[in-house]
Amino acid sequence: MNLTGHCLCRSLAFEVTGDILRTGHCHCESCRRATSSPVTTFFCVATADVAFRGDTLRHYASSPGVRRGFCNGCGSPVSFETEGRPGEIDLYVAALEDATGVEITQHWYWNERVSWLRCEDDLPKRED
């Protein structure tokens, strides 16, 4: 699969050349606060399959063993990495130029979801 994406100001771009390992809508409080949105949608790939171009990807250690990547220019969130899954990186589906073909397969941290958003789909809803 070949996927491309970029931040809001377009100074940071990425290209993915490998397979998607997993996808999901994350409802955890940490992701909600990092994006100021009620839910965040990720696709996960091998770190070695991602090439970043342009501006330098900056990182913020949002919790122990977790770092979130963002654009140095506009601050757009771009990535999520955890020591719990070495060699993998989560990228935001919404940052893709074309997400056609990226099928979302599950909800994560369903127990942390906001009460005012209705998600009425048949996807598995995991607590973690």
Automatic annotation (TrEMBL):
Gene3D superfamilies named among the record's database cross-references: glutathione-dependent formaldehyde- activating enzyme (gfa)
Keywords, in A-Z order: Lyase, Metal-binding, Zinc
Domain CENP-V/GFA: 3-109
Gene Ontology MF terms in the entry: carbon-sulfur lyase activity; metal ion binding
InterPro entries reported for this sequence: CENP-V/GFA, Mss4-like_sf
Homology family: Belongs to the Gfa family.
UniProt name for this protein: GFA family protein
Organismal lineage: Bacteria, Pseudomonadati, Pseudomonadota, Alphaproteobacteria, Hyphomicrobiales
